[in-house]
Model the fold of this input.
Amino acid sequence: MLAGLLLISGAAAATALLIWIRQERRYESSETVAAAYDAWTDDRLLERLWGEHVHLGHYGEPTRPTDFREAKEAFVHQLVRWSGLDQLPTGSRVLDVGCGIGGSARILARDYGFDVLGVSISPAQIRRATELTPDGLSCRFAVMDALDLQLSDQQFDAVWTVEAGPHMPDKQRFADELLRVLRPGGCLAVADWNRRDPVDGAMNGQERWVMRQLLHQWAHPEFASIRGFAANLEASPHSRGSISTGDWSVATLPSWIDSIVEGVRRPRAVLGLGPKAVLQGLRETPTLLLMHWAFATGLMQFGVFRFSR
Done:
């Protein structure tokens, strides 16, 4: 019986690897990004495995979370404190750009009393975010393109965006839109996957191959470097202060392995969705491992950005 299970598992892994190799999710347009997130939302695999937050966790001080979902919530609170959002009064208007299924937006509304608008290019994410949000919470959601926000200038006290930038083909326009809707003196909180800046070393052959996979498997047109996106923010005509940056690569690194281990910790979350979900989980594993390698070796960095006053 054990031999049979090993044979089935091996066949499933081989099939998933073949799918990974032959069926990339290359960025073609904003529609391909929306389609990818619609699919990830509708199959419910990520939600069942990782909870309501489609972003990395924070494993730093003051305490180290032992659970991936706890680390994700800890990440939100760490970014709130680091960016200065915790200094805003109750009722402040906050825009969450690339809100996913609303996990961070609900924490911002529930724990800090903010009035939050979450936007995503994925209709499925907005539908699911709305379903998960309890009545009475000052948190709403809308389908919107981050490069063309259908919002008036200077209407938010804070702008928050986590891991959305890699999907943006025009990094300068992304920076401009984030700052256009932010009121003077408002708070900016950006956290993103960033590539090593070219001035810090050109990629070798192995790194170029890994980078292609990181771009093509998850519908990314390009990664900015920390230095590069800080320059985009500084160059924006809407910039209202100097930009401070940080590198949270070490604090977030365990997330990549934890995101895989969750399948072992919560096997019913995957098995309950049927064989297709098991195959899908295996299909994502090579990219998650490559992400871990890239962040561990410095090819990628986890950048955070805020205004300094």
